[in-house]
Each structure stands twice: as C-alpha cells, then as structure tokens.
Write a structure and sequence with these properties.
The complex is a heterotrimer of chains A (about 260), B (about 300) and C (about 325). Chain A is built from 9 helices and 10 strands. By secondary structure, chain A is of the alpha/beta class. Chain B is built from 11 helices and 2 strands, in the order ααααββααααααα. The chains are: A alpha/beta (about 260), B mainly alpha (about 300), C mainly alpha (about 325). Chains in contact: A-C, B-C.
C-alpha cells in the first residue's frame, strides 16, 4: 500500500459531554476516492471540519502529505493543498460565479496585500477561474451573481472553488445534498471525471452515488469507525447492516 | 481606614446602580436581540420625571413612585410605537435608530425643562449620616440606594429564576424560537420585558439624581459603562451583569479615590496629578479590553443561542 | 469604471462638479458661510468615506471612528503648540499616529465579533477621549487652540479660505479614489469576501484576520487625515471631537448615503450636515426632527440615498 496522503490517528473531539469524534483513525491513500458514510449525527461534518482546520481536535493527530497539520489553521492547510466544499452551500452571495472562483485562485497566487491594481483585470486569475468553471460545466454562467444561480449550479460552483485552489486532496461534504435526480447524476458524472486527477474524500448520504464511486468506504457511527473497506466488503458487513444499512431509508435517496 | 470603608461602600453603591441599568439592557439584548442605545435616555427621563413630580407633589416618595410609573409607561410606549419594528433587524440598524432616539430625547428635555440642569432635593430624613459600624458614619441616602438596589436585584433574581415569566425570559434568552413554539404571546412578553428594563433604568436615574445634578446627556456616559458591564459580564446574563456591575463600580470608584495617591508614590507629583484623572477614567475601558481579549464572549456567557 | 447614465452616476457627477465650482459661487454671491460650511462638510465626508471602507466593504461596524478625528487633530494641535508648525511634519505625524492607534485597537478588537466589536471600538474611543481630557498641558477638557494653521512653505497657504477648501476637496477626491482602487484590488476582493463569508475565505486559504486588520488600519489613517484637516479648519481641537456621539454621526452619514457604495458616504455627509444646518435655522431644537427622521430612515429606507437612486434608475 502506498504511503497515505492523509493519516488521521486517534482523533478525539468532545462537545460538552458528547463525544463527536471517538478515537478515530483513518488513512487516505493517494489517488483513491474514499467515502465516509454514517447515519445522521455520526459526526461526519465534525470530522471534515477537523481535517480542514475549522475545528481543533481535543487529542489525536492529523498528518497531511507527511506533515503534522493538527494545529495548523485552515488557511495554512488550504495552502498545502487541502480543499473542502461545504455541506450548506457557502459561497460569497454578492459576487459573481467567476469572482468566487478567481478569489480561490488568488489565494494560491502569492499574497493579496496588493492595493492598487484591479483584481478583475488580472488575466491569469480570470483564466484559472474560467478553466475551473469549465471543468464543472459552469463557464456560461461565469458572470452571474451567485445569489441568482440555481441550487444545483451553486453546488457545482462549490466544487469549482475547491478545484481552483489546486488541491491534492478534495474533501467534499455532501455535494449532492438537495440535488434533484438529474442534477445528482450530473454531479456523479463530474466526480467520476475529477477522481482521475485528484484524491477525494467524499461524505455523502446518497448511497447509490457512494457505492458507484468509492474505492473504499469508511462507516462512522457515533463518531467511531465501525468498518472500513471496499464497497462489497461494506455491503456484506454484518455490523454495518445492523447499525446503518438496516435503516429503511438508508438505501433510498435522501433529500 | 475609614476612608477605605467609605469608598468601598461608594463603589458598591455605584456598582448596584450600574446593575439596575445593565440588567434592563442585558435582558432586552438577551431576549429580543436588540441593542438599545436609548436606554440611557430612559435613565435620564427617570431623573427628570422624579425632579418634576417631587416638586409637584411636595413628597419625595410619592414623586419617586410617580416617576417610576411614568418611565415604565414611556418604555412601553416606545417599544410598541417604534422599537418593536426593529426586532430581528441588523444590530447596526438598531444602533442607528436608537442613536436617533438619543438625539430626540436630549432635545426634548432641553425644550421642556430648559438647558440648565435641575436639582432633586432630598427630604431631611435621608440626609442624616447613619452609624453603620462603631465610629463609621455613612450618608443615609447612599445607604438607602444600596438597600433598594439590593432588594430590586433580589426581586429580579426571584422573578427570573423562580416564576413562570422568569422561566419564559430565561428560555427566550437561550432559545428564541422555543418560546414562540410554546404558544406564548411573545409580543406581550417583549413589551413587558422592555417596560421592566425601562423602569429599572428610570429607577437608577432617579436614585442617582440627588447625588449628581439632573442634566441633559446624563444618561450617555453611564450607558457606555452599562454596555461595558454587559460585555464584560457576557451578553444576556443577569448574573454576569451583577458581578460585572459591582466589579466596575468598585474599580471605578476606588480608582478615582486612590489612584492619584498611589501614582504620587511612583511618579513626580505634577506628572501624577496629570496622569491620574485620565488613567482612572480609562481603567474600566482598559479592563474591558483585557477581558475581551482573553474571553471574547465575556466572563459569563449566556447559553449559546 | 463604466459610466452609464443612471441616476446614481448623474448625481455623483453633479455633486463633484458642484463641489469644484462652489468657491466661484461663494465669491460671486458673496456668501462666505457657504464656503466654510462646505469645507466642514467635505472634511466629514472624508471621515465618513474612510469609515465606509471598513463598515460597508469590510463589514466591521466600528463605533469609535471619531477617535481618529481627534488623534489627527491633536497631532496637529500638539505639534503646533510645541512650536513645530510645518505641515510636512504635522500631517505625516497625524497619519502615522492614527495608523498606530488603529493597529493597536484593531488587533485587539478584531478578535471579537458583532455587538462585541461595536462595543469594544466604542470603549477604546472613549478611552482616547478621556486621555485627551487628561492632557492638562494641552488644554484638557477645554481643548487646545491652534494659533497658526499647518505651514506648507510657499506651496499652499491654508489660511486662505479658497486654497484650504481646495486642499480639503483634493483630499476627499483623492481619498475616495484610493478607496475605489483598494476595493477593486486583490486586497479589496479579499476583504469583501471575508465580510460575506469568513469561514469560506479561511478554507480557500486566506488568513482573514490579517486582511481585516490592514483594512482597519488604512481606514483609521484616512480618518486621521480628516482629523488633521478638521483641526486646521476650526483652529482648535478638543476632546469633544472624539466623543462617542461624533462616532455615531459618522455612522449615520455612512448609512444615510448608502453603506458600501463608493460615493454614498460623501452624499450622506452632505445630506446630514446640510439637514442639520437647515433644521437649525428653523429651530434650536433641530434634533427633535433629526432623531425621528433617523429612525424612519432605518425603518423604511434601507440602502440609504444611493440605494433609493439605484432603485429609481432601475425603474
């Protein structure tokens, strides 16, 4: 097995008396699409937030590309090539689509303490942004203000923003949340393309999508890993069946 | 030694007065999520009402009671005519609108009562010094402020912690949607809370009035102190407001009383007498800055909303 | 900037033209007070524009911006009092002191959010107010008279009303131009991004705090310049310029004109101070009208004057 791109060891995070992340360990291998599933309240978003640095764990370590990033603030991790999308669409609503993406490109193009030149006229930022938009199929909507984009388009834009930071590892927090059937299918197609280029950690409720895409799946219940392995392994795992897949709604699509 | 006891009592008295002001502010903020800069105007109106009613009726107690009622009504009126439309709006909007109210009230007072201040004379039974410890005398009026304010604080504590309304208030401070879901008449509750806050501010104003003069703008400096208190104490927390108010009252009073002498021991006397007044005025703000840097949510943050 | 003929741009062009020609009108009509009034308005417009940079674009609701008016003013006043009359020294000192003050205040205040931020900036400004009141060598509460305006050698004579007016106007237009460049620069994009979603900006790789802080310092520095101008205009500086109601006035000007629009604060300052002047001619109790008016504007006219003009031009 190759050296992991991200290695999480014995991660613990408490909120008051609740253990949201319970001694969790996890490896992400370069090139794989690693899905994390689990019922509501399993601590998936809490985990993602710790991986990207919005939350600090109480104990445990996170290594990324061979470096200990456990205490690094979010913006430093982003610079190392760690990108995330947010579960609740988290864009700059008053900016146009291309401005949103260009800002992400700008973040990785030297510092931004430049006070004079017009940022919207910097060709290489615009081009980088446009190519990220193209990859998610939004280039025609580049100059539309985010608040006027459809929900599906906003989800795609989230992805474009993450891509524009040229990540080594993409952490996607429920990219299909709230998408309709055709939009979901589009997103799955998109992720199939992206996984060829970048390592992905995918947190998702949509089981169909997860089993179609993932190389490996980790199942989380109450902040603990109860199983980890290939899709078939997980499908046949008794504990997973009992804790999670046994749920009536687990295999059906969730809004 | 005597001076120290006296100054400590003064600090306590000032702190309790600040608590009355801060309690209303923090309740309104905690429950309605409303920043009310005009709270200081209610404090001022309380003092003006008292000065007027005491002069009219010739009775201190009757005048004070009337003034309290008048401030309560004014608060309720203000809330139902204008301020309730600002609930749920941006804090900045609230700051600006109530800033406008301050301008309004200041000029209203100037128009009605004139630019010169008023005096609120004390009845003779409140001017005698009382022996509180063997050989230690303290003005009866200041002592009665302490007693009244402590009684009000105790009552407030009882209302908030032990009664049904108090339960709603606490529920509202930690989770605003919940009281709506309980089917409570929120509008009425809000109006009542605002009225209560106004009456407390008025009480603080009229009690302070005999010590200082009743004048335009008297509510502004003390309002900022009250804000400092609720920020230090943690917005929405009555207990935090109480602790912080006593703390601020003490520091401010003792700082002004003893800082000049202390400085004189370290600095030359001219430098000390220059620095002392500024430094003692700054002390509170310095304190707030330090606390906010260490604990950005205040010392006793109310339950997360 | 693409100039299109909407109501907003027409008003802006008319206002700039009007301000440029004002001394001519004043000279022809013999109405000197118009010139003095507008000198004052322009200085406050500069202060309001600087506040708009952090409030409108940066989302930082500072309730202590008048402190920089005072600091800029006291830098000029104190240096003049100590016999240093050269504007080439006074003005840079005013700017640097304001910047340093903003750096200290900002680095502490920006750790807090929301109402806490509003209150802590207010508290710091009050602190500055009390420090100034305690400066007994420089007049304390009573303030400090400045007997000679900043001296710029043979270059310009600030004691000449018209020259001083144009200096102030140049500072205002220069300041607004600078803010325009900043807002559209890389830095400005980041600051606006942080206003609308700080977490997102952190996640794509921006240390939000630093950008905010630098923006706060720039704004304070520009306001310090306004303070230096104001002290020269009144030949006097006192703690009262820093009083919290003055900070409130500045906020009102920004909101009045339209927060986050480049020229809004200028229009707001003109509207606010003209209204004050106009009302006070009718009645001594002008705030009786101004106060409720403010309440009504907050309740019914969101987006300020520029917002109304924007809606108007969209039909």
């Amino acid at each position: 097995m190759a050296e992991p791109l991200m290695r999480v060891q014995n991660l613990v995070r408490r909120f008051g008396g609740i253990l949201a992340t319970d001694n969790l360990s996890l490896d992400v291998i370069p090139g794989e699409l690693h899905a994390i599933i689990g019922p509501n309240g399993a601590g998936k978003t809490t985990l993602i937030s710790q991986l990207t640095g919005q939350l600090t764990p109480n104990s445990g370590t996170i290594h990324f590309a061979g470096m200990d990033v456990t205490r690094l603030p979010a913006y430093r991790r982003s610079r190392l090539g760690l990108a995330r999308s947010f579960q609740i669409t988290s864009l700059l609503p008053n900016f146009t689509a291309i401005d949103n993406v260009a800002l992400a490109a700008q973040a990785h193009d030297g510092h931004s303490f430049r006070f004079w030149g017009d940022a919207r006229k910097e060709q290489h930022l615009r081009e980088a942004a446009l190519s990220a938009l193209r990859r998610v199929g939004l280039e025609k909507r580049a100059n539309v203000v985010v608040s006027e984009l459809s929900h599906g388009e906003q989800r795609e834009l989230e992805l474009a923003v993450a891509l524009a930071t040229k990540p080594q590892l993409l952490l996607l927090d429920e990219p299909m949340a709230g998408l309709g059937v055709t939009e979901s299918a589009r997103m799955v197609g998109l992720l199939k393309e992206l996984r060829k280029e970048v390592t992905i950690v995918l947190v998702e409720h949509d089981m169909e999508a997860v089993f179609a895409l993932a190389d490996r799946i980790t199942v989380l219940v109450y902040g603990r890993v109860i199983a980890s392995g290939g899709p078939d392994e997980i499908r046949n795992n008794e504990e997973v069946k009992r804790a999670y897949l046994g749920d009536q709604h687990a295999v059906t699509r969730r809004g | 030694m005597l001076v120290v006891v006296e100054q400590c009592l003064n600090g306590l008295q000032f702190g309790l007065l600040l608590f009355l002001l801060a309690a209303g502010l923090t309740l309104v903020f905690g429950i309605m999520d409303f920043v009310n800069l005009a709270h200081g105007s209610l404090y001022m109106m309380g003092a003006y009402f008292a000065a007027t009613f005491v002069a009219w009726t010739g009775s201190f107690v009757l005048g004070v009671v009337l003034a309290l009622g008048a401030t309560l009504l004014l608060g309720i009126l203000l809330e139902s005519v204008a301020l309730r439309h600002l609930y749920g709006r941006d804090h900045l909007d609230q700051v600006l609108a109530t800033f406008g109210l301050i301008l309004f009230f200041n000029d209203l007072v100037r128009l009605v009562w004139g630019p010169a201040g008023l005096a609120l004379p004390l009845p003779s039974w409140l001017t005698v010094p009382v022996q509180i410890l063997p050989g230690v005398y303290y003005p009866a009026y200041r002592l009665s402020i302490i007693i009244v304010a402590l009684a009000v604080a105790a009552m407030l504590y009882f209302v908030v912690m032990r009664t049904r309304i108090g339960m709603l208030i606490r529920a509202g401070a930690s989770n605003r949607e919940m009281i709506g879901a309980l089917g409570i008449n929120i509008k009425l509750l809000f109006t009542l809370v605002f009225g209560l806050g106004a009456a407390l501010a008025g009480l603080a104003g009229l009690m302070q009035a005999p010590i200082l003069t009743v004048q335009i703008g008297m509510g502004e400096n003390i309002l900022i102190l009250a804000f400092v208190i609720i920020v230090i104490g943690g917005i929405g927390s009555i207990r935090g407001a109480f602790m912080a108010a006593i703390f601020v009252g003490m520091i401010d009073t003792l700082g002004r009383a003893f800082l000049p002498d202390l400085l004189r021991k370290v600095l030359s006397s001219t430098a000390a007498s220059t620095a002392a007044p500024a430094l003692s005025s700054m002390l509170i703000y310095l304190l707030m800055a330090i606390i906010l840097v260490v604990r950005p949510e205040g010392l006793f943050p109310a339950a997360k909303r | 900037m693409k100039l299109s003929f909407n109501a907003r741009n027409v008003v802006v062009v008319l206002v700039i033209a009007g301000l440029l020609l004002l001394p001519v009108y004043s000279a022809l009509s013999g109405k000197v007070f118009v010139l003095t009034l507008f000198t004052r308005i322009i200085i406050f417009a500069l202060a309001a524009a600087s506040l708009n940079l952090i409030m409108g674009y940066g989302g930082m609701m500072s309730f202590g911006h008048a402190a920089y008016l005072g600091i800029g003013g006291y830098a000029v006043g104190i240096l003049a009092h100590e016999g240093i009359g050269s504007g080439f020294i006074q003005w840079p000192v005013a700017l640097i002191t304001s910047a340093l003050f903003a750096l200290v205040i900002g680095s502490l205040s920006l750790r807090t959010r929301g109402v806490y931020f509003i209150m802590i900036t207010l508290a710091f400004a009050q602190m500055a107010y009390y420090v100034a009141s305690g400066l007994s060598r420089y007049g304390g509460d009573d303030g400090l008279t400045i007997y000679k305006r900043s001296d710029f050698g043979g270059l310009i004579n600030l004691s000449d009303r018209v020259q001083f007016y144009y200096v102030c106007l140049a500072c205002l237009l220069g300041g607004v131009y600078l803010i325009w460049r900043i807002v559209n620069s890389r830095f400005g994009m980041v600051v606006q991004g942080v206003r609308s979603n700080e977490q997102r900006m952190q996640a794509i790789g921006f240390p939000a705090y630093r950008y905010r802080l630098v923006c706060f310092v720039i704004s304070g520095t520009i306001c310090g310049l306004a303070g230096a101008l104001l002290a020269n205009n009144t030949d006097f500086v006192s703690p009262a310029v820093m009083y919290w109601t003055r900070s409130g006035d500045l906020m009102v000007m920004v909101i009045f004109g339209g927060m986050g629009s480049l020229f809004g604060p200028v229009i707001g300052a003109i509207a606010f101070l003209l209204l004050e002047e106009f009302l006070s001619q009718f009645t001594e109790y002008w705030a009786l009208i101004m106060g409720p008016l403010l309440l009504l504007i907050v309740l019914f006219a969101r987006g300020g004057i520029m917002g109304i003009l924007g809606r108007f031009s969209r039909g």
